[in-house]
Specification:
Blueprint: E1 6-7, E2 17-18, H1 24-30, E3 48-49, H2 52-66, H3 72-85, H4 90-94, H5 97-100, H6 115-118, H7 128-131, E4 134-135, H8 137-150, H9 154-158, E5 174-177, E6 183-186, H10 201-212, H11 218-226, E7 234-242, E8 246-256, E9 262-271, E10 277-287, E11 291-297, E12 322-329, E13 335-342, E14 345-356, E15 362-366, E16 370-372, E17 375-384, E18 395-396, E19 401-409, E20 413-420, E21 427-433, E22 436-445, E23 450-454, E24 457-461, E25 472-473, E26 475-480, E27 493-498, E28 501-506, E29 520-522, E30 527-530, E31 536-540, E32 547-548, E33 552-561, E34 567-577
Parallel strand pairs: 16-22, 24-34
Antiparallel strand pairs: 1-2, 3-4, 5-6, 7-8, 7-14, 8-9, 9-10, 10-11, 11-12, 12-13, 13-14, 15-17, 17-20, 18-21, 19-20, 21-22, 23-26, 25-30, 26-27, 28-33, 29-30, 31-32, 33-34
Helix pairs in contact: 2-3, 8-10
Bound molecules: heme C (2 copies).
């Protein structure tokens, strides 16, 4: 598949490099409106590169608004062709892949690559969709024109905000409270009209996008030359992490599907802390040579020891009926990274790392994340092809840790007993077994200095009647002060999650704040389940007034008593708000 760029002979984009479209189905379905010239360039389509999700979204809009008729299978085939022919290079995808992974944590602003996009594109939707665009300048202009035509408030965002001059006699007086409880009266101030000829925010955004995210890039040219259908069949070792549930290990067996980009999977995972296991079977498709989208279901799942209170609502057993998988395959085809999330509840999921299993022994990781000095305990080591005749001296964790006994050893799991000496050097330890190694397998520490709640702020949405609830998963992590003995410094050691007790405290923001009574409940795994949406007759802010919604802001509080009997406390800010009443299109591209 060699990349060809040709210069348009005719049509609306003279002398602009575009990408020829040579797929018969795409030409026949789209060509009626998107004219194709003799060089194979089609209007609009040849001047855009983006993700499978955005291609699908655009095609859905063609059906909804522009009168395209196509069957679901035809749409899937066109999405597949366009994602390969007009897709993104892995380096280009990396910046916005969190959107594909349905990550909800963090702040959008952290991802906005330029202030020109902050008050424009990010005003209405995720910035991930914008970072995943590569277009010509002219096509960005058309994208903005489409927005102005279709979404009325886009006009206000893209055009300059002209403000009228306010003369002093019309200027308002500002009243502000002063420190002693009195009122400050600020003198009225006249304001000048804002510059009418200032460059429109939309034009600034287009300038930025056309220069920083152009249609043809060295990354794409290089990737098109290297792109191939990935040979993924075989056994893969999984190490994963699910906030609230901890470390997960297992394997995925991948078998080829009907074509070279389709695969079937059989997955077996074990939650390291509880020993609970999960068996899944699934199907997946790999777009653009690296971009894995899969779904796997609980074909024959073993029941998980989850209490009813900690079980999110989709399945009685507390595990999703279906997982969605979004991963990027590495360029050498030997590892994959991404996230598997709950179908319908993207806020719940696990970070996954897959490596191809080989004949060599491999260490995936340990069940626990820290060992205290001095102590004696058991460690489980998950791996692949571990030797069966292991001796205590085969396990090396570094100074101060002595392996006293191999309790049990199978090719995927070794259980050992360890002694941690008093004054064993504090720090992250690597583990080696023969030639196999795991960097920073676990921490050795003397005492817990403090705990933190992760993430440090989160949003949750009311629901359950008409809209889905949006859950918020917390975890409490312990830290040691590190070699310098001072807490909250750069050398602090992350000791991993601890099983804290959870509660809520009021975040005082309104008079008689009563949010903790209404917003929802947090269980002993740190999972916050929001209350129902809509007015609650039981909650009246003013007597004889109507009931108000169950929204509010609170602290999620973790309390943990460590082995030495010291009680640690930490908290995180939780905003519980109304459902996503305007749920924009959520394209799914994993169906085949
Ligand atoms: C019945 C006419 C019609 C057909 C058929 C049609 N389109 Fe469109 N398309 C339009 C019009 C009109 C626009 C410009 C307005 C807009 O963006 O909706 C457009 C715009 C687009 C855009 C630009 C949207 C953006 O993100 O800026 C893309 C991409 C696109 N079409 C893809 C397709 C593909 C792929 C097909 C075939 C599967 C297709 N169209 C079939 C009429 C059509
Ligand atoms: C006024 C709100 C608003 C603003 C501002 C806005 N968008 Fe959109 N955008 C939308 C809506 C609504 C849709 C389509 C509906 C949906 O997401 O389901 C959309 C769709 C898109 C799509 C998908 C293409 C398609 O054919 O559907 C892209 C790409 C996009 N926007 C990029 C941008 C960029 C780039 C900017 C900034 C220059 C921007 N948007 C600013 C509201 C907005």
């Amino acid at each position: 598949m060699a990349l060809s760029i040709v210069h348009a002979q005719s049509g609306s984009q003279p002398d602009v490099a575009g990408i020829p479209i040579n797929d018969q189905l795409t030409i026949s379905k789209c060509g009626g409106c998107h004219r194709r010239d003799p060089a194979g360039l089609m209007t609009r389509i040849s001047y855009i590169r983006t993700t499978p999700e955005v291609w699908e979204q655009a095609i859905k809009r063609m059906i909804r608004l522009n009168g395209l008729s196509a069957t679901p299978q035809e749409v899937r085939d066109i999405v597949r062709y366009l994602s390969n022919n007009n897709g993104l290079a892995p380096e280009e995808m990396a910046a916005g892949f969190w959107e594909v992974e349905h990550r909800t944590q963090g702040y959008q602003d952290d991802h906005v690559s330029n202030p020109a996009l902050q008050k424009t594109c990010n005003n209405c939707h995720n910035i991930g969709r914008v970072l995943a665009q590569r277009r010509t300048r002219e096509d960005y202009q058309k994208l903005l024109a489409m927005h102005i035509g279709m979404f009325p408030s886009a006009e206000n965002v893209f055009r300059p905000q002209r403000t009228k001059a306010v003369p002093i006699e019309e200027a308002p007086v500002h009243l502000t409270a002063n420190d002693t409880g009195g009122i400050n009266r600020e003198a009225p101030r006249a304001t000048a009209a804002s510059a009418v000829n200032a460059k429109a925010p939309g034009a600034i955004a287009v300038d930025y996008l056309a220069t920083s995210q152009p249609l043809i890039t060295p990354e794409w040219t290089a990737w098109r030359a290297a792109m191939r259908a990935p040979k993924l069949a075989g056994t893969w070792l999984v190490s994963a992490y699910q906030p609230g549930r901890g470390r997960i290990y297992g394997q995925v067996v991948i078998t080829p599907g009907a074509s070279d980009d389709l695969f079937s999977t059989t997955t077996q995972l074990t939650y390291a802390s509880s020993g609970a296991s999960l068996k899944l079977t699934g199907k997946s498709i790999v777009y653009t040579g690296y971009s894995w989208r899969g779904r796997s279901g609980a074909a024959a799942m073993s029941p998980l020891p989850v209490t009813a209170a900690s079980a999110p609502v989709t399945a009685a057993s507390g595990i999703p009926a279906e997982w969605r998988e979004a991963m990027m395959v590495s360029r050498d085809g030997n590892s994959m990274d991404g996230r598997w999330f709950w179908s319908g509840f993207g806020e719940l999921g696990m970070d996954v790392h897959l490596v191809r299993a080989s004949a060599e022994p491999a260490i995936l990781g340990t069940d626990i994340s820290a060992l205290q000095s001095p102590s004696h305990g058991q460690v489980k080591i998950f791996g692949g092809n571990l030797p069966s005749s292991l001796q205590p001296s085969d396990f090396i964790f570094g100074p101060g840790i002595t392996v006293t006994k191999v309790v049990n050893a199978t090719p995927t799991l070794a259980t050992i007993e360890v002694d941690i000496a008093a004054k064993a050097p504090v720090g992250m330890r690597d583990l080696t077994i023969g030639r196999a190694g795991k960097i920073k397998a676990l921490a050795v520490y003397d005492k817990i200095a403090y705990i933190e709640v992760s993430p440090n702020a989160q949003i949750s949405r009311l629901g359950g009647i008409k809209w889905p609830k949006e859950f918020a998963q917390y975890e409490a992590r312990a830290y040691a002060a590190g070699p310098d003995g001072k807490p909250h410094t750069a050398d602090d050691l992350d000791l991993g999650p601890v099983s804290a007790q959870w509660s809520m405290e009021e975040f005082f923001s309104t008079p008689d704040d009563d949010d903790i009574l209404f917003v929802g409940k947090i269980d002993d795994s740190g999972l916050f389940t929001p209350s129902f949406e809509g007015p609650n007759p039981e909650r009246k802010k003013v007597n004889s007034n109507f009931g108000v919604d169950n929204y509010g802001d609170v602290w999620a509080v973790a309390t943990y008593k460590d082995a030495a009997g010291v009680t640690h406390k930490a908290k995180s800010y939780l905003v519980v708000t109304v459902p996503n009443y305007t749920l924009y299109d959520q394209p799914e591209v994993a169906q085949q």
